[in-house]
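Q: I'm a student working through a structural biology exercise. My instructor gave each of us a protein and asked us to get a predicted structure, then write a short paragraph describing it. Mine is GTP pyrophosphokinase. I'm not confident about reading structure output yet, so if you can add a plain explanation after the C-alpha cells, that would really help. Here is the sequence I was given:
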Amino acid sequence: MLEAELLFSEAALYLRPEDVSQLKNAYTFGHGAHSGQYRKSGEPYISHPLAVARILGELHMDAPTLTAALLHDVVEDTDISKEEISERFGEPVAELVDGVSKLDKIQFQTQAEAQAENFRKMFLAMARDVRVILIKLADRLHNMQTLDVMRTEKQRSVARETLEIYAPIAHRLGLNKIYQELQELGFRYSHPLRYRVLVKATRAARGNRREVVGKIQSAIINKLKDAGLEAHVHGREKHIYSIYKKMVEKQLSFSEVLDIYGFRVIVKDIPSCYVALGALHGLYRPIPGKFKDYIAIPKANGYQSLHSTLLGPFGIPIEIQIRTSEMHRISENGVASHWLYKSSDTNLNDLHMKTHQWLQSLLEILSDSADSMEFMEHLKIDLFPGDVYVFTPQGKILTLPRRSTAVDFAYAIHSDIGNCCVAAKINGENAPLRSELKNGDRVEIITAPYAKPNPSWLSYVVTGRARSQIRHFLKTIQFDESVELGERMLNQALLALNVEPELISEAQWEKLVRDSGFKSKKVLLADLALGKQLPVVIAKRLISPLESVKSEQLPSDPITILGTEGLTVQFAKCCHPIPGDVIVGLIKKDHGLVIHAHHCPVIAHAQKNPENYLDVTWGKHITRTFEVKIKIVAANKHGVLARIAAAIAKTETNIDDIAMESEKDYTAMGFILQVKSRYHLAQVMRSLRRIKEVAKIIRT
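A: Happy to help. First, here is the predicted structure for GTP pyrophosphokinase. I'll explain a few features afterward.
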C-alpha cells in the first residue's frame, strides 16, 4: 500500500532502522487483524490507522507512539488482546493502545454516560503518558477529515464533541496546526450552511486583499531591514471558524472582521523581538490597550509571542505577532516538540512542567469527581484557555480562566488554602472572596485553621479544580455527619428492642455488612441517617443471635438535636419547629431525619408507619437561629410597617421575608423571622403587641 511506504520512508528520516522495522511488523500485524473490515467509505480499515500514524509522523513522534497508532483499534475491533500486543511489541505500546481503546464491554444507562466514562479512562491514561492523547487527537483528526460519509445527525454530534473537547485539548497542549484543523472541520459539520456562506464570501474578498497585503508586507520588511534585523514576514490568513467566532463574540459584520490584516514576524532571538516591535511601532501607530507580551508571561500551553495591533495605511487595523523560530516550533507542535527537538531549551522545559501540572490537576479532579458526568463538567470548564494572569504575594505568576475569583486563586495554590480561606486582599485592599480577578492583580489569601468551604462558593467559582475540591469536601463532611447520626439512630432502635448497643460484636457487624452488600459499616450507618434504611429493621437483623440474652425493657434516650448537625438533619418547612417546641423525628427516604413540631398535620398523616418515627429532643445550649412564621393583622395606617419592623429589630431578630395583603381598613402581613427559641419568639410578640395599630398576632 502506497500510504504504508510513505509512512516508512518519512519515519526513516528520523527513526533508527530497528524502529522502522518494528513499524513494518506492526503494519503487517494490524493489516492481518483488520482483514475483511472496511470503513464506511468502502476503503480497507487499515487505511485509518495508517493515516493516524502519518499525522503523528509529521510531528516526528517516537517509535512506540507510531506503533501504537497503527494498532490503536486492534483491541477494540478485533479478537487481539492487550497481552498479545505486549508480548509482540512491548508493554509501553500495549499501555498506549489500551489508553486509547474505548470501554465497549461495560454497559451504561445512556450514551452520554458511556462517552463520559470513555473520556475519564482516556484522561487517566493521558495523565500517566501524554502520548495517549496525541494518538487520540490524530485519530479524531482523521475521522473528521473523512466525516462526509456519515449521516448528517452523526456528523453534527461528532463535530460538536470535537469543538467542545478535542479542539480545546489540542489548544491546551499547544498543538496549533491540529487545533485549527479540528476547529475548521468541527465548524464545517456542525453549521454546514454558515460554513459554506463564509467560505464563499472569504474567497471573494481575498482576491481584493492581495494588493493591500503585499504593500503592507513590503513596508514591514523594509522597516525591519532598516533596523538591521533579519526576519521572515508572512501574511496570516484568518481561518473560517475564527472569523465566525469573532463575528459572534464581538457582534461584528463579515467585512469588519476581514478588514483586520494579520502578519507574523519571525526573528532570530528574544532581544530581536523587542527591537522589531519598536521598529514597527515607528512604522505604524500602535492602538492603545492592544499590546500583549506573551514572551515575558507565556500562555498556559507554552505559547510565546509579542502581539500588537497597529493602525496601518487608510486606517486599516494590522495585527502583528513577533516570535523566534523556536517559539514558532512550539506554537505549531506544543508538547510534541519534546520528541521533535530533544534539546535543553528552557521554553520546552517550562511547557512540559505546565503540561505535567495540568495533567496532575486532572488526576485530582478525576479522584474527587463522584461520577464520569461530573468529571466531564469540570473538564469542559478547565479546558478553555486561561487568559487572566495574576500574581501571588511572592511574585509568582498564575494563569487562570476568565471570570476566575479569589476562591479559584486559593484552590490554584493548594487545596488546603482553598478549604481554609476566609478573606482576600487584592492589590493590598480587602476584597470579597467572590471578587473577579483581572490581569496583573496581586492576590493574597487569608486563611483560618477552623474555616471550611461554603456551599455558596459553587455558584461563582470557575475552575474545575476549585469546583471538584469544594464538592469533595462537602460530600466528605456530609458523610461523616451522616455516619454519626446513623449510629445514634441505630443505638436508639437497639435500646427499644431491649439490647445494649455494646453487646453487638464485630463479627455480627461483618456478617450484616456482607449479607446486605454494603461496602462498609460506615456506608450502612450513613444510609440510616439519609433514610435509605430503617433503624428498626437493621437493629432486628443485628440482634437475631442475641435474642436469648434479652433483659427487661431498657430505657431509650431520645436523640438530642443541637441544630449543628449540618446537612443530615433538616427542619420541616411545613411547621418550622423551634427550640421549646415538642418535636418528633421523621425518617424520610433520601432526605434523612426531618424534625417536625409535634402538632404538625404531617405527623398525624404519617402515624400508620410508627417505625419511621424517632424520639428526639432539643439540646440545652443551642446558639443558632431557626425560621418561624408569624401573621400580623394591623390597621391600614401610614408608617405601620416601619414601626413593626423597628419593633422586631429591637429584639435582635432578623426578618427573612415579608408578604402583605391589604384590604380597606386592615393589612395582613406574613413574616418569616429568625429566632433562637420559643422564649425569643414570645419576646418578639410582646414587643409587637405594644403597637396600638396591631390587632392580632399568631404563629402560623
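A: Here are two points you could use in your paragraph. The radius of gyration is 34 Å. Residues 192-226 form the longest helix (35 residues). It's a good idea to check both against the output above yourself.
Q: Great, thank you!
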